[in-house]
Amino acid sequence: MLKKLKKEVRYFLDKLKVGERILNDKYFISTREIIKKEIAKQPERSEIINILLQQTEAIHYLEIGVRDPSDNFDKIICKNKFSVDPGIEFKSNPVDFKLTSDDFFEKLASDKLTQIKSDIKFDVIFIDGLHLSEQVERDIKNSLQFLSDTGFIILHDCNPPTEFHQREDYYFRNSPARGYWNGTTWKAFYKFRHHEDLFSICFDTDWGVGVLSKKQLHLFNKIETKMENQFYEYAFMNSKREEHLNLVDYFKWKKLLKK
């Protein structure tokens, strides 16, 4: 009995030491402050989506990766709104299409969806699904097939503030970023910044709201030189973040709309 008790005490003390190391770790301390600053940024993605919907006199809006509709989808103002989510993170999943984005686009292209036809053109498509670059790239490519000529593709989580936020495994929480996760969305966005037919911008708010467009608006641009960050290294991106993401203050951009 005494031996077992000593073992439990040692285990408890070891946990306290680990906790103390985490509390005093410089990466945990600095990242905690970075998270506070990021959360305080305004506006949220919903405002950006709505103002872009106004720029194109939108009729059709599509959201990929909804989870809880009250977070964003319910705040969007558009005549026809459609939602896609497989329901992994939000079990009630009150969306139009209970599918993965891959399945949704495959069925849409082959006219296997009853609610909408394959000739539909969306004015704004918001991508907030699986935050891994390979999946985000597929979502962008598929979205381009169904985007109107004056439309926008909007991506959440394009500006991870630390390398811990851009980890690939969402479920790994024992990191300075804790439960906050942007994944590797930035890599797909950076890649499409080089697309010859697209213009882009990333608003420095709400973890980075990236926008791709077929038309050039104020402060939208593209990278016309050879890709510098060929291996998509975070440290390289971080050293040229403003240029590589075209990171812009939202309120500065909004003022230009009125001119």
Summarize this structure as a short list of keywords or feature phrases:
alpha/beta, 259 residues, 38% helix, globular, 7-stranded mixed β-sheet, 9 helices
Question: What would you say this structure looks like, in words?
Answer:
This protein is α/β, with parallel strands linked by helices and 259 residues long. α5 links the parallel β3 and β4. The protein starts with a helix and ends with a helix.
Give the topology.
Blueprint: H1 2-24, H2 26-40, H3 45-55, E1 60-64, E2 80-84, H4 101-109, E3 122-127, H5 133-145, E4 147-155, H6 185-192, E5 199-203, E6 209-213, H7 234-239, H8 241-245, E7 247-248, H9 250-257
Parallel strand pairs: 1-2, 1-3, 3-4, 5-7
Antiparallel strand pairs: 4-6, 5-6
Helix pairs in contact: 5-6
Average residue-wise pLDDT: 93
- What is the alpha-carbon Rg in Å? 21 Å
Helix content: 25-40%
Main beta-sheet annotation:
7 strands, mixed
User: How many alpha or pi helices?
Assistant: 9
Helix/strand/pairing class, anyone?
A: alpha/beta
Tell me the distance between the termini: 79 Å
Question: What's the order of the H and E elements?
Answer: HHHEEHEHEHEEHHEH
| Uncertain parts | none
* Tertiary shape: globular
Percentage of residues in DSSP E strands:
5-15%
Total number of beta strands: 7
Strand order of the largest sheet: 2-1-3-4-6-5-7
